[in-house]
Design a protein that fits this description.
The protein is of the alpha+beta class. Helix content is about 25%, strand content about 35%. It has one domain: Alpha-Beta Plaits. The model has no long low-confidence stretch (mean pLDDT about 95).
């Protein structure tokens, strides 16, 4: 399993439009083979921060999705791109 997680920042006032522009991409990604979850969400405190979270069953599924994702061109400059891919060795309930 792979998790891609982190955040980007955009200019203040552009965050919500950026998130909304990805609605279709999120809907399609969640239906893609191997996708376990995807979210692109606005930070409730920082008006510039956007979180990215993806969980996939394999790297091959990620690559297949990326080849056909057709991400929207929002024209928005992303700053502070802090997104990392993590290969998961195991998992368990946190509580």
């Amino acid at each position: 399993m792979w998790i891609i997680a982190g955040y980007v920042t955009v200019d203040e006032g552009k965050r919500d439009a950026f998130v909304e522009a990805h609605r279709d991409l999120i809907t399609r990604a969640r239906q893609a083979p191997g996708c376990l979850d995807v979210a692109i969400t606005a930070d409730p405190v920082d008006p510039r921060r956007i979180y990215n979270y993806e969980r996939w069953d394999s790297w091959e599924a990620i690559e297949a999705w990326r080849a056909r994702a057709n991400a929207p061109d929002t024209g928005t400059t992303m700053h502070d791109v802090e997104v990392t891919a993590f290969e998961v060795a195991g998992s368990r309930p946190p509580f």
